[in-house]
């Protein structure tokens, strides 16, 4: 039986993280609205309509303001998510007698390794979930991971790919048609980001619940 003396309650951290993920989703919706307005404006220009300079300037200012605020929210959310991943990995180790392949440090570190960050963090999260499964003991490695992990990672990879495509299109845009296509792809980025945020909230909620339940069960058995 594991001795979860190093277990740390993540309820507060998880709640704060989910609040920021909620903000992330909110900014995705705001971005969707703003990008849609931009698409409509550029489409009118492509169709030959004359757009007042004031309208174009207002669009640029709105987009810049939303982008700046969204970046701050994204960075704060990313920091909190990495912190939550680190603590959750430590908790998972304490629940299975330190038998995990990936250390808490690498649970975070793999996100920053080029190419490997397309699958390693997913493997880390699966291992954490398996070790945290409240219905498994010494046979925890045989546990199946919940759908929350695959949904989250699928959307994460899609977000990375479509985000890079959007950035390159934006930097290379020279004609109105180019800017229109770039703005249309930005709409897709907004939708993917929204779904990713929702998937991440589900991931955090499920793991926090599992770890707390398993910790309480092990603690009760050792009294």
TrEMBL record:
TM helices/strands, residue ranges: 12-33, 64-82, 102-119, 150-167, 179-204
Domain DUF4328: from-to ranges: 51-208
Record keywords, A-Z: Membrane, Transmembrane, Transmembrane helix
Pfam families: DUF4328
Keyword Transmembrane carried by entry: yes
Name listed for the protein in its UniProt record: DUF4328 domain-containing protein
Taxonomic source organism: Symmachiella dynata
